[in-house]
TrEMBL record:
EC class: ligase
Listed EC numbers: 6.2.1.44
Protein name in the entry: 3-methylmercaptopropionyl-CoA ligase
Reaction(s) the record says it catalyses: 3-(methylsulfanyl)propanoate + ATP + CoA = 3-(methylsulfanyl)propanoyl-CoA + AMP + diphosphate
Domain AMP-dependent synthetase/ligase: 26-410
The UniProt record lists the keyword Transcription regulation: no
GO biological process: fatty acid metabolic process
Organism: Nitratireductor indicus C115
Highest taxon of the lineage: Bacteria
MF terms in GO: ligase activity
Length: 547
């Protein structure tokens, strides 16, 4: 067999190959746009040169305290500048960034600190009380650094907590060397970040990201969110959630501006959009509702079009039309923690604008097609690993394959093996594939309702509920039934000042759905949500069990 001529004397070398990493994007931005504003936080702002220098000094200080390859640095921070600095400074040491959900309780925090073997903890004083309790429960004894936010608002929901660390964040950064020789990863497969799943059925799993995936997400986000040069991004999405969908690394690619937002409030969002010329933001549908339902005295006018990237269930048509009137263009995304956040986008086609209302709504309800950085996306029978027909009706499990799928679950070989069975990442989401290759979710596998042998999609029922003018939020789960096995039960949160009866809600659903799919009962209550605005179905199921 003859030698392949394209493998002769054409080896990798420092001149033609480096590991992919998002860290070089900030370095480039600091050189190309040194005076451009990188971060705005309240009355303060810093340019790219300063952002870069502070990230290096953070890396230097961490390195001086022994942080190196494979060491975990845990942060419990709001959407503030130190969170952005940590996304660069921590991996510059070859360490791994672990971002804690700021709404977790002490036992879960303690579990994560121990499981991640945290060496350093950076904690905002807003969360010092729960962190203090967690550290008392945990076995690890990390270096604790306090962050005292100078822009902490006077109308904060509660006062700052006590200092629990041995050093202040600003003092820690100041101790670093701006000339520190920071490190590229040895291999692009090296870990860059650790994110834990919600853990609603036992201890959460630690999802590990690598430098390659984070870098590719930066490029993919720039394309799919249409981040042009000088984009201004408002931080309504928590940066702890899938590393803020990788946007802390993304903005540097085109020299965009991060506008930090500590609390998601209508007035603060409108002020930021109007005062700073915000062009992009991300969030769950609850953020849209907050904007649309704000009192008139909190709203501000703006001339630019603002792109709103949203994931989770597709927003109701009434919300989408309201957002359009308010000057927002909504892009529907879909993904999981295990896919670095959104990996699927509803690529809107111009010809769909010519459809009638029902036609457009049916297209908007789809999750869409794969990100450019994802290798493949399909719907399969999880038992046979055979693709389902592309008929828009046959339900299977949504599966992913590509460079923006996690490395695996930290210290959990069994769960990792199950997740990657057959060479695909099993999402646990049930959906269909349409003839044009667009996927549409029908439910989580655990949320599908099987009544009399028929599958009922809770998403389909919820979509019908949202079409009722009085419904602000809803969640549909299964209730045990002696005759049918399971029947749907709806939890409904009404809009302020609006009223509806159980009979009216059920009749409304029956006008839109087959009767067997309609909720057999309706409970009016506040809908429990996660810190990112997603409805907590497991809590609704617990409520049903207690009835």
């Amino acid at each position: 067999m003859s030698e392949n001529i394209y493998e002769r004397d054409l080896d990798k070398n420092p001149a033609n190959y480096q590991a992919l990493t998002p860290l070089v994007l900030l370095e480039r931005a600091a050189k190309v746009f040194p005076e451009r504003i990188a971060i705005i936080h309240g009355e303060a702002s810093v340019n790219y040169a300063t952002f870069w220098e502070r990230s290096i000094k953070l890396a230097s200080a961490l390195s001086a305290h022994g942080i190196g390859k494979g060491d975990t640095v845990t942060v419990m921070l709001s959407n503030t500048p130190p969170m952005l600095e940590a996304h660069h400074g921590v991996p510059m040491t070859k360490g791994v960034l672990h971002s804690l959900n700021t709404r977790l309780d002490a036992p879960i925090i303690a579990f994560q600190l121990d499981h991640a073997e945290s060496k350093v903890v950076i904690v905002d004083r807003e969360f010092s009380s729960v962190m203090k309790e967690a550290l008392e429960l945990a076995s690890v004894k990390p270096l604790v650094i306090d962050y005292d936010d100078p822009e902490y608002a006077q109308d904060a929901p509660h006062p700052k907590g006590e200092r629990i660390g041995s050093i202040d964040y600003e003092a820690f950064v100041s101790s670093g060397d701006a000339g520190f020789a920071w490190s590229l990863p040895d291999d692009e497969w090296d870990a860059i970040a650790l994110n834990y799943t919600s853990g609603t059925t036992g201890n959460p799993k630690g999802v590990v990201y690598h430098h390659r995936g984070a870098a590719l997400m930066a490029y993919a986000n720039t394309v799919h969110a249409a981040l042009g040069s000088g984009a201004v991004y408002l931080w309504t999405l928590p940066m702890f959630h899938c590393n803020g969908w990788c946007f802390p690394w993304t903005l540097a690619l085109t020299g965009g501006t991060h506008v930090c937002l500590r609390w998601v409030r209508a007035k603060a969002m409108y002020d930021a959009i109007a005062d700073h010329g915000v062009t992009h933001l991300c969030g769950a549908p609850i953020v849209m509702s907050t904007l649309l339902n704000a009192p008139d005295d909190q709203k501000r006018g703006f001339t630019q079009t603002v792109t709103f990237n949203t994931a989770a269930a597709p927003p109701p048509e009434t919300v989408l039309s309201g957002m359009a009137r308010a000057g927002f263009v909504v892009t529907h995304l879909y993904g999981l923690t295990e896919t670095y956040g959104p990996a699927v986008v509803n690529e809107w086609k111009a010809e769909w604008d010519e459809l009638d209302d029902a036609g457009r709504a049916s297209r908007k309800a789809r999750q869409g097609v794969r990100y450019a950085a994802l290798d493949d996306l399909t719907v399969m029978d999880p038992e046979t690993m055979v693709e389902t027909p592309r008929d828009g009706e046959t339900i299977g499990e949504v599966m992913f394959r590509g460079n923006i799928v996690m490395k695996g679950y930290l210290k959990n070989k069994v769960a990792t093996g199950e997740a990657f069975a057959g060479g695909w990442f099993h999402s646990g989401d049930l959906g269909v594939m349409h003839p044009d290759g667009y996927i549409q979710l029908k439910d989580r596998s655990k949320d599908i309702i099987i009544s009399g042998g028929e599958n009922i999609s809770s998403i389909e029922v919820e979509d019908a509920l949202y079409k009722h003018p009085a419904v602000a939020a809803c969640g549909v789960v299964a209730k045990s039934d002696e005759r049918w096995g399971e029947t749907p039960i709806a939890f409904v949160e009404l809009k302020e000042g609006r009223q509806a009866t159980e009979e009216e809600i059920i009749a409304h659903c029956r006008s839109l759905l087959a009767h067997f799919k309609c909720p057999k009962s309706v409970i009016f209550s506040e809908i429990p949500r996660t810190s990112t605005g997603k409805i907590q179905k497991f809590r609704l199921r617990d409520l049903v069990k207690s009835l």
